[in-house]
Structures are given as C-alpha cells and as structure tokens.
C-alpha cells in the first residue's frame, strides 16, 4: 500500500472554504452546474446511492443472552452486515448524498477524507459507485485489513505518522488535487436526517416494537465523529421517547473530558488504540448537549468485552464494539440491581476479522501493556451472578 500525494484531477474543489491551510494553491475552474451532462451525471449518481440504501439500509438486531428473570434485555444492532462491513456505511452514504446535492462531489474530481479506516472503506465504495477517485488520509497504524479493503474498493491510502495531522493533510491534499475534502468530523451530524428516513435510531425502535420492552431505556453508542450519537439522541427527543443515550469513550480520547467539563477546547496528546472511535480533539460533529451520559472505558476492558461477545454469540467484532458493550453491561447491571426492567441497545460497529492482529492477538496486547484478565473476570462474574463486581 503506497502513500499517495497527488492525483491527476483538474476540477476545482469548491466545498466549504476556511479549512484549507494558509497559502494552499486551490485550482480554479468555472463549473456550470446547469450544464446538461453534469446534471445527468448528478441524477444518476444520486440514484445509485439511494438504490444502495434501498437494498441495504436495515441491519439485524441481535439479542445478547441474559437470564429472563433479570428483567433486562440487551440487544446489539449489527452494523457489520452493511456492504462495506461497518456502521460507517450509513455515514458515508449520507456524506456522499450531502456532497452530491451541494455540488461538492463532481465528475473526475477526487474525494479526500481524513479517517482511521472504516469510514474510508465505506467512502471508497461510494466513490467507486458514482465513479470518482478517492484518497484516504490515515494514521500509519491503521490495520492492514482496512487498507486492503480501501484499495479493494478502488481507493488510495495516504499515510501520516501523527494521527493529529490527518485533518490538515487531507485538506491540503484536496487543495493540491482539485478535489473535495469530505470532512466527516464536521459534517457527520448534519448530513444524516435525524428525524427519520430509516436512520439507525428509527430502525432500532421499529425492530423493538414486538419485544417485551419495546422502548429502550438506554442506547449506548461510541463516538468517532459523533454523528451516530447525535442522530440517535436527536431522534429520541424528536419522537418524545424516554430513551436515554450514553456514549462510551476509550482511553486517549478527549470526548469524555470535553463533555464532563463543558470544554470545547479539550484535547488528548495521544491517539486512540481503539480504531474508529476516540479523538484527540473535540470534533464539530460531537454534539455534547444531546448526550445524557458518558463512560470512560479502559482499552483492556474493550478488548475483554469483544472476546466475551464472541463467547456469548459466536461473533468477532472490532474494539469499538467492545467499548460500547462494556458500558452497556454496566448499565444492565445497574438496572438489575435497582429492580428496573427494560431494554438496552448497543452496536456491533464492524467485524473482528479486521483486527485479528490487534484485539485478538495476545502478542499485540503484551506489546501495548494491556492486561485484560481482571476485566474478563468482571464480565464473567456479572454474567454468572447478575451483580457487577465492586
């Protein structure tokens, strides 16, 4: 997987300005958006993206086995069954529709994205679908499998050594190539229709309608851009549900501190080891006011939880799933201890086969200095007794 610095595209990027580095040379081309060939291309591109949603927007809601007598049911929304294998398929679809309808995504002009991997895989898929080049700007530590999938879908990988530099490098690369910087971290929360239209929150509530607790007490999400938690939280308020939203945050992420301290300038000096979630800065799409609760989850606990998930339902999942599952199990324990019946929902964000050399590797855990034993024991004791260890 070679680092790529340029493409041969000549069309001007005319998305939101103000995010390009000072002095960046932006190619300028006068594009006539009333031109019949362009409008014909746009109609076909939007049709293809909407057809993908029609085929694959809904995903399964799986039950995590818990004793019925606890009175609490735990579900996992399996987003790994999307065509590109992750929760980010929904986001990428929304971002492409947003970019197309705004006139930012155009024929031949590359789409550039800053990503830790899964969003880039999904955006590469949609770029190929509508026929535009795609370049992913990612930390060099991104899993090899994610890089392979980006290239499988026709995208190119451009690596940076410091994960905090992906934003400015993506913007600069878009400027140099005449492309469009998709900027998921700014536009995730506004590109998705949070009022319905089969978004993830509406799907969860629809799929629970015949369960014994059809309105979930809690939905637990994790945050990379913050777009998913914003969509869920806005939807439940708009629909006047009593559902609460909890965001689980990994180590080396500033979201928890920024939310707790109401500090939009919160930051982290290190990048998250849990790919796809946790950020070194407070992202524009992370809507703190819509979130009811946050939990800080140790990385070792996240890994222990995904391994417990495999033991419980026979499915491997990525580390971000473990972060959310750990928080969901703690909420289940609280509800059971207080005698409160209800349902809790969290997400399977992506499949574990992308991380066999990380979260399922004991050598990687040793290299990172992570001991999952006490967390694995805590989960086992809880599932056996119904009480969370002190």
From TrEMBL:
It holds the Pfam family PALP. A cysteine desulfhydrase that generates hydrogen sulfide, H(2)S. The H(2)S produced by this enzyme modulates the balance between respiration and glycolysis, and contributes to redox homeostasis. Probably eliminates toxic levels of Cys (which can induce oxidative stress). A cysteine desulfhydrase that generates hydrogen sulfide, H(2)S. The H(2)S produced by this enzyme stimulates respiration in M.tuberculosis, mediated primarily via cytochrome bd with a lesser contribution from cytochrome bc1/aa3. H(2)S modulates the balance between respiration and glycolysis, and also contributes to redox homeostasis. Probably eliminates toxic levels of Cys (which can induce oxidative stress). GO terms for biological process: L-cysteine catabolic process to pyruvate. Its EC number is 4.4.1.1. It catalyses: L-cysteine + H2O = hydrogen sulfide + pyruvate + NH4(+) + H(+). Belongs to the cysteine synthase/cystathionine beta-synthase family. Cds1 subfamily. Its cofactor is pyridoxal 5'-phosphate. Residues 1-31 are annotated as: Disordered. This is L-cysteine desulfhydrase Cds1. Its main location: cytoplasm. GO terms for cellular component: cytoplasm. InterPro entries: Cds1 (IPR047586), Cys_Synth/Cystath_Beta-Synth (IPR050214), TrpB-like_PALP (IPR001926), TrpB-like_PALP_sf (IPR036052). The modification N6-(pyridoxal phosphate)lysine is found at residue 88. Residues 59-350 form the Tryptophan synthase beta chain-like PALP domain. It is found in: Cytoplasm. One of its GO terms (molecular function) is transferase activity. HAMAP family: Cds1. Keywords: Cytoplasm, Lyase, Pyridoxal phosphate, Transferase.
């Amino acid at each position: 997987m070679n680092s790529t610095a340029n493409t041969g595209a000549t069309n001007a990027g005319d998305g939101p300005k103000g995010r390009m580095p000072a002095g960046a040379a932006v190619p300028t081309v006068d594009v006539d958006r009333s031109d019949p060939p362009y409008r014909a291309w746009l109609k076909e591109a939007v049709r293809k993206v909407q057809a993908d949603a029609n085929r694959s927007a809904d995903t399964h809601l799986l039950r995590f086995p818990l004793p019925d007598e606890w009175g609490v049911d735990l579900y996992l929304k399996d987003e790994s069954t999307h065509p590109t294998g992750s929760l980010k398929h929904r986001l990428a679809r929304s971002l492409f529709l947003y970019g197309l309808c705004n006139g930012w995504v155009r024929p031949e002009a590359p789409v550039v994205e800053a990503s830790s991997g899964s969003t880039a895989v999904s955006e590469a898929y949609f770029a190929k679908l509508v026929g535009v080049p795609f370049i992913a700007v990612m930390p060099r530590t991104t899993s090899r499998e994610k890089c392979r999938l980006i290239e499988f879908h026709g995208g190119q990988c451009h690596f940076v050594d410091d994960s905090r530099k992906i934003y400015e490098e993506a913007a600069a690369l878009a400027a140099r190539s005449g492309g469009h910087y998709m900027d998921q971290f700014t536009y995730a929360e506004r590109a998705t229709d949070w009022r319905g239209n089969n978004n993830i929150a509406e799907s969860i509530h629809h799929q629970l309608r015949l369960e014994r607790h059809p309105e979930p007490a809690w939905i637990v999400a994790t945050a990379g851009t913050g777009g998913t938690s914003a969509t869920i939280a806005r939807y439940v308020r708009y629909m006047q549900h009593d559902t609460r939203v909890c965001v689980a945050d990994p180590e080396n992420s500033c979201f928890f501190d920024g939310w707790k301290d109401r500090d939009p300038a919160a930051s982290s000096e290190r990048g998250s080891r849990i790919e796809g979630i946790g950020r070194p800065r407070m992202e524009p799409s992370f809507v703190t006011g819509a979130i009811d609760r946050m939990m800080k989850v140790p990385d070792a606990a996240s890994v222990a939880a995904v391994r417990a998930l495999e033991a419980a339902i026979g499915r491997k999942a990525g580390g971000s799933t473990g972060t959310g599952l750990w928080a969901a199990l703690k909420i289940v324990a609280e509800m059971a201890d207080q005698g409160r019946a209800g349902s809790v929902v969290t997400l399977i964000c992506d499949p574990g086969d992308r991380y066999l050399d990380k979260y399922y590797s004991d050598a990687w855990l040793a290299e990172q200095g992570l001991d999952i034993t006490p967390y694995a024991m805590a989960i086992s004791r809880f599932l056996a007794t119904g009480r969370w260890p002190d």
